[in-house]
Design a protein that fits this description.
The protein is of the alpha+beta class and about 250 residues long. It is about 25% helix and about 30% strand. It has one domain (about 1-135, about 170-245): PPM-type phosphatase domain (Phosphatase 2c, domain 1). It has helices spanning about 55-65, 75-90, 140-150, 155-160, 200, 205-215, 220-235; strands at about 1-10, 20, 25, 30-35, 40-50, 100, 105-110, 115-120, 125-130, 130-135, 180-185, 195, 240-245. Helix 1 packs antiparallel against helix 2 and helix 6 runs antiparallel to helix 7 (about 220-235). The chain starts with a strand and ends in a 7-residue tail after the last strand.
């Protein structure tokens, strides 16, 4: 059994281009929480292209991912390609949706409680364990490539002028994105918190700040709100979406 909670907030922007999926629930504004039994998918999407096309892309992506009956045998690469192609087709139909795109960061827990991860773009997946936050996803971005080749330092990566340049994501009309799909031969440990977020959080709230908030003796959903508030306080100019998941003991039948 898993406890999941999530928040998506437009922040200082006039509308929200983020969206999230929690099993079969798609959310484009507000807060949700639930207890889930495996198998299921949970995801965060950050729309690209501005205006209304970004929010259409992220919401449509989550709606399509919701229809995937996830288990250990599902061909995630094929499913993501179908979503990519559907978004690209939708984005090519008129100028309002021209080349609309979205990032995707997702986790799947299969029927054996094994963890699967998906990443396309620069939304992030972290694991909080024993008071320490570690990034499990790899940013598909220019600055990440420069960092890995040694052209910039870790500190420069966080403040680089081109940090928002990302590689092709779902819906791109000219290039097929790279689907980073990982099957982890492990279960989520009790006490771990998996945290998925858009860059409205990760660009403005540091890992030590997130660790400090997660260490607070408050309900997890309340800690997500504190992270959102911290991002806005730190000057976030983007939408903010955070999804958290932890493993819990199943409730005993009376």
């Amino acid at each position: 059994m898993y406890y999941c909670c999530a928040i998506t907030d437009k922040g200082v922007r006039p509308h929200n281009e983020d969206a999230l999926l929690l099993h079969k629930t798609v959310l484009t504004e507000g807060v949700t929480e639930n207890r889930l039994a495996a198998p299921f998918l949970a995801a965060v999407a950050d729309g690209v292209s501005g205006e209304h096309s970004g929010e259409l892309a992220s919401s449509a992506c989550m709606q399509m991912l919701r229809e995937v009956s996830f288990n250990s045998k599902v061909d995630l690469d094929a499913k993501l390609m179908e979503i990519h192609q559907a978004l690209a087709e939708l984005g090519s139909k008129n100028t309002e949706t021209s080349n609309m795109q979205t990032t995707l960061c997702a986790i799947g827990v299969d029927e054996n409680d094994m963890l699967h991860t998906i990443n396309v773009g620069d939304s992030r997946l972290y694991r909080y364990r024993n008071g320490c936050l570690s990034q499990l996803s790899r940013d598909q971005s220019l600055v990440q490539m420069l960092y890995e080749e040694g052209s910039i330092t870790k500190e420069e990566r966080e403040t680089h002028a081109h940090k928002n340049i990302i590689f092709p994501v779902l819906g791109n009309l000219t290039s097929i994105p790279i689907f980073d799909i990982q099957t982890h031969e492990e279960q989520i440990e009790f006490g771990d918190v998996l945290l998925l977020c858009s860059d409205g959080l990760s660009d403005y709230v540091s890992s030590p700040e997130i660790e400090d908030i997660l260490a607070l003796p408050k309900p997890l959903v309340r800690r997500l709100r504190l992270m959102t508030d911290a991002a806005i306080h730190n000057g976030s100019t983007d939408n903010i979406t955070i999804l958290a998941l932890s493993r819990v003991m199943p409730e005993r039948k009376r």
